[in-house]
Amino acid sequence: MDDFVRTKLLEWGLSEWVEKFKDKEIDADSLYDLDDQEIDHVITKAGPRVKFKKNLRLLKCKQEQEAADLAQVFPSTSDTGKRKSDLQSDPSRLQSPAKRQRLSVSGFVESIILSDAKSIMTFVHARLHHQDQLCAFLKKKISDLETDKRELVGVFGKTGAGKSSLINAIIEEKNLLPSGSINACTSVMIKLEANTYSSKYEAEIEFITKEEWNDELWSFHQFFCKNGDHETEDNDDYLDAVEKLSAVYGEEWKQKSSENLMESKYFKAIPEFLQSKRKILTCESANELCAKVVKYTRSDSKQGEGNEGKKWFWPLVKCVTVRVPNNPFLQHVTLVDLPGNGDCNKSRDQMWKGILGNCSTVWIVTEINRAASEKEAWEILESVSSLIGNGGKCQQIHFICTKSDLLDDSDDLSSADVHDLITERNVQATDAIKKEFNKQSKIRKHFTDDSFKVFTVSSKEFLKENYLSPEETEIPKLQRFLQDLNDCHSETVNYVTRAHRILSLIQGAISRGVDSKKGEVCEELERNMSLQLDNVRKEMEDTYTAFKKCLDDGVEKSKCSYGEKLKNFLYDGKNGGAFYNLLKCVVENGGIYKPKKGKPINLNMKLASCLIDSIGAEFRKTFPNEVTCGAFNGVIKTFSLDTDSLIEKYKNAELQLRFLKTEVRSETLLSINGLMVKFILISCLSVRKKILRQD
Fold first, then answer.
1. Which of 184, 244, 348, 404 could be 300's S-S partner, Cβ–Cβ 3.0 to 4.6 Å?
2. 681 CB neighbour count, 10 Å cutoff
3. What is the mean pLDDT of residues 594-599?
4. 3-state secondary structure 572-637
5. Angle at CA 536, nearest 5°, toward 531 and 540?
6. What's the confidence (pLDDT) of residue 646?
7. Radius of gyration of the CA atoms of the chain, in A
8. 250 secondary structure, DSSP code
9. How many CB atoms lie within 10 A of CB 110?
10. Per residue in 432-441, pLDDT tens?
């Protein structure tokens, strides 16, 4: 199932049938060809089936009308030998999108323009009937237009820092994310996006697999069998196991085996978990959605009166995507509420690392009181800096101090005095945090002063305006930041521009003027490409030599230091029992010790630190985070086939050459990450061979 079908089902109020259509692999092409018998088989309930048939009939009528209106604009490829294209006879239809906008669409709303452009490209896609390579290529390019390129903003913060209240205030949805409980904390990753498909509030819940939960249950059982006499509040593994099992099973888990706990009766409320499907919750209001989704996202260590027997499903959840209708701040931005240090569950941890590496901005949220000296906030930033810095997409770090309105002993002060004290403390906090940032040597390896910003915010004052104006709460600054990322105008122009290039290529393909010079054009393109590839190859060889030297030095340092590092990690002031628990945790969790309190300790990173440090500077030079720079000293970014000069020489091939120019640019940028991964693997394999030879 593609995005088109999913969008239509959500628009028609049939979200509960999304998974069924996905299972049946119904895409945009097959949707139009569904007959009554097939629809009856897919949608088994009469009410939704009638609604679907009605909307499908209206959609077909709309497409037929568009086909009639545009028949003169996009001739069938089978007609190209019989008559000249209407596109060629009307040059205004091939003008640049910017020029056409000035001439004819100044009064249109951009959303209408975008909708019309998408309808046109859907129609063009349906007209590409031939099974040749060109049609397959064009279909893929048109399908790629629908890819929603979103900016990711990762949000970190310890429990009680006001992260949920901050997000609610920024997107102006006061009751969307649950907040206020000092005992509860967000336990799973939450992604917030705009709901562009309907006017409903929606939560899409993705579960871990049955196999993963079964493995966890088995591990818990093994732990209890071996440590029955060591059940203390200081044992992190015990507390973690009890918290998860009690959330899902209440007190029943104590009398059951791991096999019994996988019985379907325990998952009646979430059959999607057993079916390996996603659960979709749809609500009319933010309040209603918040009440429904809380059991999937938050752990509550002290379930109060009235919560006895209530089940919490967060241990089974991989990720929750919350979609908010008509929200201008989330149109093309995804806010990701991230747990601080990854997860013991492998699939959750992999998703955590993957999303973190793709964040263009990271928000670190902490209370303003002693923000500069807040140890946990800086530990989080330090622990993730290598993921968001080394080859990641992160351009900015925002250190956000919350609750700026909270002052001690302010009851007897006038409003003006409170205002002055708040603003004065905000300035002091900002200066102190910037000074502390300058002391963070590990973080500053990846980020400069220009990429680090401090905000002092008050979600409460933004809503109530007792002492501060909305602008002074700095919430509007963060809203403007999100709006800049969204940049709806750019999205429309980008789509129309890319669509225009595809239509130009189609027009060029049905034109006969290129045939006589096709061989010459191809020869010159191949010659230019060969020269450019030589430049890339030379730069990569030079960089490989530099990397190899750095890694060789790192290997020698690692050989001299690993014994001492291992000893300090395992034996540092620990008695026999503590040593055993630490070693057991490290073995079970892939080399990582994650205490309930304090930051995790990664033995793998400690042992690899000499290698990482040896290559760090060269890596950042080769793969800089700054968008103005380019990988491999900019040689990939400047890759060009010199199509501009070829356009002057071969006018008949202009449409194809312009398309090729933009394709080379976009594909070159996309290839950088792939090259980076391959390059690192080759370098690491070289080091591994050296270590094996020496051993």
1. 184
2. 10
3. 66
4. CCCCHHHHHHHHHHHHHCCCEECCCCCCCEEHHHHHHHHHHHHHHHHHHHHCCCCCCCCCHHHCCC
5. 145
6. 87
7. 29
8. T
9. 15
10. 999 999 988 8
